Each structure stands twice: as structure tokens, then as C-alpha cells.
């Protein structure tokens, strides 16, 4: 029913240009440029001219990594891509969360998917989907039995990581920056309108997804565990996606300098982009405590919703 509404909505968008105020609707539409690893960006126009491997085609995703921003979505996609039966989209597509892209229609979306063999599954990741008000309904309209992957980490850590990314992004663009405390606190109270905090309210966003998908269709990856020890989390994902077990411990090696795991597969070694694993600023402990106690209630609600707990500090 809800899925049908979204399809109707897509038709409307294709017929009339969305009014500008509508384009701004939704929860989180800010681009996450540093989450795009330049080395991995596909040249989409180049892709069209080069001939695809025989027997392959571009297919709608069978699974989508929906978020969360700064949760480790890039790491998850890269690690999952080790699997020979996974074809990962190179770019963050932002189809379901940006109205201007959604209006381009489903064929536009499919064109951005990688070529894959019939035995492979296509996976796309766009971290903005998790906090988008419309993404669940739209994804459901495309494929109501799609398997969703959500990677989460401690919500307070995520806020600081979110801040850190924006901070470095602004520095690089010669824009003024603020101390994290000035964003977290307004007039002596926690500034709950701060977007980074809003994005960490996992219960609020999860409710929206559970209106359209049963819990069994959403597998939650523990982002903190994935960084500490990737293999067990990836084996759970293989099982969730009904993939034969192909990812093994020799696919990972610990890089002492970086302090996290890198990937070894097909005779190639690759680590995540420099923007990953940046040091976080030291946050005033009173303010951090305010943030943690605010998130505590939300994370309790979230644990109830997903019938599972996480080891968040
Ligand atoms: C992308 O492909 C087009 C057409 O093949 C080419 O002209 C362009 O230089 C490529 N861009 C990059 C960044 O490789
Ligand atoms: C929908 O997703 C499921 C689960 O990945 C997959 O088996 C099915 O083929 C998909 N349907 C379409 C039309 O892509
Ligand atoms: C380990 O990380 C450092 C720092 O980013 C990098 O220069 C080096 O190439 C990496 N080594 C391996 C084997 O991945
Ligand atoms: C932390 O912030 C509080 C106000 O929120 C302030 O009273 C306190 O002095 C700050 N502590 C430090 C170490 O800066
Ligand atoms: C980050 C955070 O707020 N963690 C809390 C989540 O909720 C549990 C209780 O359910 C607390 O113990 C954590 O401190």
C-alpha cells in the first residue's frame, strides 16, 4: 500500500519538476564529500563507452547499505566487495534521498549500478538514506523484499565523528569553523537541533524504516566490532545475504600506522581513504556527559525496537 503511494509519487515527480522547497524536505540531505574515496569513483560516462564484459548487465540492487553516516559504510562496502558474488556500486548514488535524483527515474538509477553476472548480487551504499524521511517508502516501492544493511556505532562517538568530518571539510574549503562545544550547546542546554545529534537518534529513524520493512529484512552491522575485528561481522552479512562463505581472515591485515585493518584481495592491498579514522577533538567532559545522557534514552528505545543491544559506552 505504502509502496504503491511511492510509485505514484515517482510518476508525479517525473511529470512535474519538484518545487524548490520540496527539494529541501527530508531529514538529511547534506552531501558527505569526504566519504567518497576519489580512488574509487567510477567514471560513469566512461563506463558507457567501454564495452561491458559479455554476460553482464546493470541490475537494480539486491541489497542497500542505508547508513548511518560516519558509521563505517565505506569500510563495510569495501570489505563486502571482497566477495566474488558481490558487485558494489562505486559511487554514493543518493537516489532515494534526493528528490532531484529520484525525479530522474528508475532507469537513471539502474544505469549507475555496476555490471554484474547473473549469479552476483548488486550492492549500493548511500549513508544518507537512513536519516531520510522518504527513502524507506521509495526503496520499498522498488523492491519490497530487498535486504537492507545498516551499520551503526556508538551514537555519541558518531556525533563527534560527524563534527570532525564537517570541520575538516570546512577547513579545506577555507570556511570558518567552530569548536564542537559551541555547536553542541546553546544557551547552556544541549542543542538538540544540531544535525549531528539528530542523525544519532537511531530510534527515530529506525521507526520510519520499520513502518515499511520487517525487522528481519534489516541486518544491523556493529560498526565498532567491524573495525576491531572485521571477519565475524562480515560472516554474519554473508549469511544474511545468503552468500556462500568466501571472505576469510587472510583478506585482512592490520596496518599499525593507520591503526586499523586494510584489505587484501585479488592480489591487491587497499586501505581506506585518508579521511577515515581521523583523530577526534577532545570534548569538554561536562558537555560530553550531557550528550551521552540525552542519547541514553534514545538508545534504550532503539534496543527495544531492534530486539538487540549494543555495547555502547
Ligand atoms: C571520464 O570519461 C570521459 C569520457 O571517456 C573522459 O573524457 C574523462 O576524461 C574521464 N574523466 C576522468 C576523471 O577520468
Ligand atoms: C528484490 O530483492 C530480493 C532480495 O535481495 C531479490 O531476491 C529479488 O531478486 C529482488 N527483486 C528484484 C526485482 O530485483
Ligand atoms: C599503512 O598505512 C600507512 C599510513 O597510511 C601507509 O602509508 C602504508 O602504505 C600502509 N601500509 C600497508 C601495507 O597497507
Ligand atoms: C566545560 O563546559 C562547562 C559549561 O558547559 C564549563 O563550566 C566548564 O568550565 C568547561 N570545562 C572545561 C575543562 O573547559
Ligand atoms: C551512548 C549512550 O548513550 N549509551 C547508552 C545506551 O543505553 C545504555 C542503556 O540502555 C547505556 O548503558 C549506555 O550508556
Automatic annotation (TrEMBL):
The active site is at residue 70. Its EC number is 2.8.2.-. Keywords: Disulfide bond, Glycoprotein, Golgi apparatus, Signal, Transferase. Belongs to the sulfotransferase 1 family. Residues 1-17 form the signal peptide. It is found in: Golgi apparatus lumen. GO terms for biological process: glycosaminoglycan biosynthetic process. It comes from Amphiprion percula. Disulfide bonds join 262-271. This is Sulfotransferase.
Amino acid at each position: 500500500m505504502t509502496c504503491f503511494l511511492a510509485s505514484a509519487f515517482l510518476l508525479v515527480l517525473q511529470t512535474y519538476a519538484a518545487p524548490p522547497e520540496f527539494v529541501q524536505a527530508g531529514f538529511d540531505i547534506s552531501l558527505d564529500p569526504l566519504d567518497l574515496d576519489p580512488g574509487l569513483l567510477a567514471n560513469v560516462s566512461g563506463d558507457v563507452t567501454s564495452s561491458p564484459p559479455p554476460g553482464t548487465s546493470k541490475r537494480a540492487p539486491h541489497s542497500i547499505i542505508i547508513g548511518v553516516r560516519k558509521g563505517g559504510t565505506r569500510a563495510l562496502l569495501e570489505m563486502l566487495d571482497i566477495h566474488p558474488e558481490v558487485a558494489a556500486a562505486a559511487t554514493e548514488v543518493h537516489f532515494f534521498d534526493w528528490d532531484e535524483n529520484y525525479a530522474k527515474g528508475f532507469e537513471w538509477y539502474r544505469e549507475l549500478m555496476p555490471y554484474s553476472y547473473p549469479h552476483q548480487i548488486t550492492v549500493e551504499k548511500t549513508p544518507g538514506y537512513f536519516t531520510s524521511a522518504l527513502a524507506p517508502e521509495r526503496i520499498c516501492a522498488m523492491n519490497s523484499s530487498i535486504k537492507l544493511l545498516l551499520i551503526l556505532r556508538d551514537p555519541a562517538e558518531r556525533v563527534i565523528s560527524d563534527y570532525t568530518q564537517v570541520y575538516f571539510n570546512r577547513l579545506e574549503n577555507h570556511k570558518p569553523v567552530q569548536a564542537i562545544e559551541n555547536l553542541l550547546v546553546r544557551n547552556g542546554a544541549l542543542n538538540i537541533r544540531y544535525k549531528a545529534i539528530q542523525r544519532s537518534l537511531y530510534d527515530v529513524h529506525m521507526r520510519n524504516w520499520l513502518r515499511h520493512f520487517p525487522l528481519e529484512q534489516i541486518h544491523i552491522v556493529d560498526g565498532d566490532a567491524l573495525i576491531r575485528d572485521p571477519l565475524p561481522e562480515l560472516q554474519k552479512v554473508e549469511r544474511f545475504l545468503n552468500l556462500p562463505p568466501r571472505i576469510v581472515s587472510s583478506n585482512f591485515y592490520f596496518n599499525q600506522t593507520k591503526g586499523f585493518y586494510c584489505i587484501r584481495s585479488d592480489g591487491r592491498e587497499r586501505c581506506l581513504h585518508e579521511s577515515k579514522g581521523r583523530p577526534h577533538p577532545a570534548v569538554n567532559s561536562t558537555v560530553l556527559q550531557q550528550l551521552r545522557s540525552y542519547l541514553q534514552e534514545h538508545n534504550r528505545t532503539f534496543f527495544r525496537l531492534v530486539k538487540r543491544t549494543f555495547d555502547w559506552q
